[in-house]
Specification:
single chain; alpha/beta; TIM Barrel; nine-stranded parallel sheet; 10 helices; 9 strands; 16% strand
Amino acid sequence: MVPWNDSKDSKAWLGDALLAANVAAVQARIVAAAHRAERDPREVCLIAVTKTHPVAWVQHVVAAGVTHCGENRVQEAEAKITALRGQAHAPQWHLIGHLQRNKARRAAMLFDYIHSLDSVALAHALNRARAEQPDMPPLPVLLQVNVSGEASKSGFILYGGTASPQLPDFHAAVAAISRLPHLTVQGLMTIAPYSPDPEQARPIFRQVRLLREHLREAFPQLEWAQLSMGMSDDFEVAIAEGATMVRVGRAIFGERG
């Protein structure tokens, strides 16, 4: 990654060529991690996390080959999505942050994927909103799961993954969500607790991978194609454990000021 400039002019300093170099470096790391895991690198989608960064920077990373962007907040995403809509090579947009029900209607109209579906009530809100647009296909969603027990993380509570006592409740939630005609369940998302050692995230990623395998047997009518896990500090470990989507911000854009 190109080092961050701490001067007050750093935002102006971070230009097209530097962002392109960072994108290329992250893509190379994804390829290397996939090869180490004996996986096809094309199975791993890079999502550039653009939160707090200006539209011009998003345009630079898209020009560098990024085709998927992630945002945490609906309001911030709307300006960027609107600015890039209709442009050549406009990216697909992923909502990766916690979504409140009162923002569900707008999110369902704006985003191509929702990674942070964490309740049946939110699923119903998204389904109703998507139903208002009959020309739009069903909304792809990922079920966010919290297998670590970290209180600050959102998601369906499944401490211990498939060994969790909450697993029957989660089964009931999956069954209810799967019946909603304007949503399509694509897989799972998780956020591992932060650690300076990326290997500390491996047990969390492994639990989520095993949970997906369990769900494939329990709900074979659903696709379960996606595992969204891994960020700038630990995405290579996530790829080793089966991630198909990695959410990378700092390794592309540098530290947020």
